[in-house]
Amino acid sequence: MTTSPAETSDLLTPLDLAFWNIETAEHPMHLGALGVFEADGPGAAERAAELLADRAAAVPGLRMRIRSVWLPVGGATRVPVPAFDPLEHVRLSAPAADFHAAAGELMQRQLERERPPWEAHVLPGADGTSFAVLFKFHHALADGLRALTLGAALLDPVDLPASRPRPQAPAASRWSVPDPRRLPGLVRGTVAEVGQALGIGSSVARATLGMRSCAALTSSATGTRRTAGVVLDLDDVHQVRKAVGGTVNDVVIAVVAGALRRWLDERGDCSEGVEPRALVPVSRRRPRTAQPPGNRLSGYLVRLPVSDEDPLVRLRSVRTAMDRNKEAGPERGAGAVALLAEHVHPLGHRIGGPVVAQAARLLFDILVTSVPLPGIGLRLGGCPLAEVYPFAPLARGQSLAVAVSTYRGRVHYGLIADAAAVPDLELLAQSVRDEIDGLVAVCARGAGLVTGPAAT
């Protein structure tokens, strides 16, 4: 069977390998997105499942499985599956009265590693007025933006801005035998990379000093998952941003800090002195460029000011920390731990995966990530997408992760937690709602304790 250029094998990047090798049954490393659609009549969910399967067969990136290679030793590659059957990946479930309850059970199931690592579960609504689709993509297959590209290819066609083409010549593996004429430049580059790695490592060490997390954000692995969703009005977020300055993302992160404070105090845990380290992933992809497979990520590390009583002081603290991270850039600082994967040989990822998985708890306490969505309305089989909740994977030793997407004038928080460690996830969801309400009320009263130019 011939292979089209779009389906040629593709070596996993070091970060892809890291995600592939740190996975365990208790800590599956897949991203998720729960989309809720308005049903246009009986059978809408069944038609949606048929469309997803038909369209998946035509998306080259969804035909790729991951297998080990001889060279580089310990490496792996994406290869097309000749007998790809989309019905093994698109599944129609029984009607669900609670989409999030069903999503939690599905998110805890590890993807089959011998097949292309993705799934789409269609969930008919019990009342017949809506249905949901839960997309799951392994993090070794795609980061958030790449997963968005793959998922969008299965929805109804829309007119999106054209992407700039990817360079056709792939970059050579950093572990291949170099041309002797390039050795001086490679030596200088290696010295710079070692310096960068040491700088990141020292920043991580400094970030742990004086840090106090809380038991509610840590857990032993149970393999269980629970999800919840919160929808906020983007106008409310903009009202806060315009009143006190900063960016939409600053407000989104500050809401998480305030919600954690409310949640901890409500459940009887003390929020005093708690400053969990939030890892905020940053995409290294170029805007409007065709998305290659795998991960192109760095990150910022931000201490969430959970212990501060004043919501505006919390927002000022988040804004200051994010400004400091942006000034330093996404390739240095404690949040750039993902870049350390590039300095490890593939065999090191294969052997050291379990060790790296254990170390996640030492690097950060909670993941807070944002996945952008197109501003246009999305549909599946003519049924409009009404809500979309992204879900991030849970690192070992962590009980909660937060992902956020802005879509059609609303901000969607997707919460995922270890079900045994966080049985009250809905209480945290309500705390998110209460926090934005509190911020809006403070701004409406004209309490301008935080000043500065507004930003988008």
What does this structure look like?
This protein has 456 residues and is α+β, with helices and mostly antiparallel strands. It has two domains: 8-152, Chloramphenicol Acetyltransferase, CATH 3.30.559; 187-375 and 392-444, Nonribosomal peptide synthetase, condensation domain (Chloramphenicol Acetyltransferase), CATH 3.30.559. The protein has ten helices and 15 strands. The protein has a six-stranded mixed beta sheet, with helices on both faces. β14 and β15 form a beta hairpin. α7 crosses α8 (311-328). The longest helix has 25 residues, at 183-207. The model is unreliable at 1-7, 166-179, 181-203 and 447-456 (pLDDT under 50).
Report a brief summary of the structure.
This protein is α+β, with helices and mostly antiparallel strands.
Write the CATH homologous superfamily of the largest domain. Nonribosomal peptide synthetase, condensation domain
Which percent bin holds the helix content? 25-40%
Spans where pLDDT lies below 50 across 5 or more residues: 1-7, 166-179, 181-203, 447-456
Helix and strand sequence: EHEHEEEHEEHHEHHEEHHEEEEEH
Q: Tell me the name of the CATH class of the largest domain.
A: Alpha Beta
Strand content: 15-25%
Cα separation of the termini: 50 Å
How many domain modules? 2
- Biggest sheet: strands, sense, closure? 6 strands, mixed
Whole-number average pLDDT?
80
Give the spatial strand order of the biggest sheet.
5-6-7-2-13-12
Shape: globular
Q: At the third CATH level, what is the topology name of the largest domain? A: Chloramphenicol Acetyltransferase
